[in-house]
Every structure is written in structure tokens, then in C-alpha cells.
């Protein structure tokens, strides 16, 4: 599998494919919102609390599309707070509330919603590999009651590793955190293993059993003599702080899939813009509940924007000089 290259095209926002694809979907007759109708939207998340930037991007985009909370829309927020076991009860609760549609952030949230209902439309915001995980039959015509956006997290792993090595050439033993409970992480490890030899890197896979549990991780990194850290998992806020504190104390360069780590002290991130994904999810919500399109007829979209973020303050603290050839390609540089 070829890795996406970091080009100017990638740094554009989502292309017009989403608008074109949804405009091509035949709309139900008389699909305008009934007068006085108040839509009830459920938002099921495990990565973010409702006040975090990505969910708030969903709320803001809905407002821009004409939905005013308390007038023509009600948003029912349900946050699993990083615990997979809370998702199913929360999904069932949303179904009992008779919501008109459910927005789910990641794969496990989408699956919980699917188990709770086969009729209420479900919009994926951040799902990784929707087809490979069996959430939709195909991207072009997903069928069923699920559509939305699917990221390419595992496919980006090789590119992320390449950028990491280019930015910090001296790294050799890279601790790769992965979660056995996250289905796409096995594919991520395969991508990393395939890319590592040509980059003269030795991956050190370390299992993280939950988003909030780092027990044994730091000891394993020390034992394996890791000199760098590669993270695709999104941790709880407390675990994120522990991880960044350990990296700073141990003087470890870090590469993340989620940019939220970088302003907090991480060195680099490369991946999709999560708030933008939630904004695009709002477009699916609008098309479905206002225009009347069926979820199964709406193509699942993939992002075309990948962002490189670099924290030069962290680089200085680690005694590193990031090559100018990497800095000029960054979408954001934190001084």
C-alpha cells in the first residue's frame, strides 16, 4: 500500500467531492422540514466531552446551516468519558429518547449505535476504516442506516513515521503505542513494520489496554531503550499529561496522530483535522434531516486534508534542530 504524500493538495480543506456526491443523491419528495418541527439529534462520543473543539465544531456548523437550539433542534450529548463499556447503555438511552439521528465519533461509538438501532440514521464523524470494520458495505453506497466520514489512520502511519525520521534523523528505537481493543491498530502496526527497515528504525510495540491506563508502558519503554515515541491512540486527558510528562523527562521526541498533543508539549503530529471532520458530519446531518436523503445512499467521504504540526519550543527543550525542509511543509509551527 502506497503512503499518502505531503503535498499542497493535502493541505487544502475537504474538496468538493462531498458537495458533489450529496447533490447527486435524489432527495425525497417534499423533504423540507415540517413547520414547527424540532429535530432531536443524539451525539455519542468517547474521545471528546461535549465542550471540546471537535464536537463544538459540529454544533457551530449546524448553527451556520440554520439550526437554532431550542427552536428547531435539540442536541442530546452522551459522552462515554473514554470508557468503551459506557457506550452501549448511552446508545440505548438515545434510542429511547427517539432521536431523529445519531452522530458517533469513532468506530466503537458507531458500532454501539448500530447495535442499538437499525433504523435511526447514524453519521460517523471519525471512524477509521469503515469498510474493514464492517460498519458499511462500501464507501460509494454504504447501505443500511450508516454513513458519514472515514479516516485513513492506519494508511497514514508510514507517512507519519517517514516525517518523524526526517525531522529527527537520530532516532532508531521507536516505541509504538497501540491498543488491542482498537481494531485498526493491527493494520497500523503492519504499516509501521513495513516502513521501518527502509527508515532504519526498529519499532517497539507496546500495548495500551485502555485510553486511560498507562500501567507498565513507561517501564516497557525504558526496558526497550526507546529513544522516541509514536502514538496513534487518543488518550484521556490525565493519561495524555502523564505521557507528555514522561516524554519530556526522558527527553523523547514524539509523533502523534492527533494534533491536540502538540500544543500541550508533544513534538509533532500528522493527521486529519478532527474539528473539520465534525463540521463535515454536520453537513450529513443537514442533508439527512432537512433534505430527506437516505443514509445508505450517501457516499462515505474520506479526508483530503492532512496537517503537519510542529512544536519548536519542545524541539528546543529536547536539544533538537528540526530541518528547514520539514518546517516549511508544516501547516502550523508552534514557537
Structure explained in plain terms:
The protein has helices spanning 17-23, 53-64, 87-96, 107-116, 157-167, 185-195, 217-223, 237-250, 274-291, 312-317, 324-327, and strands at 39-45, 73-79, 101-104, 122-128, 146-151, 173-178, 202-207, 228-231, 254-256, 268-271, 307-311, 332-334. It is of the alpha/beta class and 335 residues long. Helix 3 packs across helix 4. The protein is elongated and about 65 Å long.
The spatial strand order of the largest sheet comes to 7-6-8-9-10-11-12
Task: List low-pLDDT spans.
Answer: 1-32
What is the general shape?
A: elongated
Cα-atom radius of gyration: 20 Å
The total of beta strands comes to 12
Average pLDDT, all residues: 87
SS field, number of helical segments: 11
Largest sheet: 7 strands, mixed
Percentage of helical residues?
Answer: 25-40%
Distance between the termini: 35 Å
- What fraction of residues sit in β-strands? 15-25%
Report the order of strands and helices: HEHEHEHEEHEHEHEHEEHEHHE
Secondary structure category: alpha/beta
Write a brief caption for the model.
With about 325 residues, this protein is an alpha/beta fold.
Give a topology summary.
Blueprint (H helix, E strand, L loop, with lengths): L16 H7 L15 E7 L7 H12 L8 E7 L7 H10 L4 E4 L2 H10 L5 E7 L17 E6 L5 H11 L5 E6 L6 H11 L6 E6 L9 H7 L4 E4 L5 H14 L3 E3 L11 E4 L2 H18 L15 E5 H6 L6 H4 L4 E3 L1
Parallel strand pairs: 1-2, 1-3, 3-4, 4-5, 6-7, 6-8, 8-9, 9-10, 11-12
Antiparallel strand pairs: 10-11
Helix pairs in contact: 2-9, 3-4, 5-6
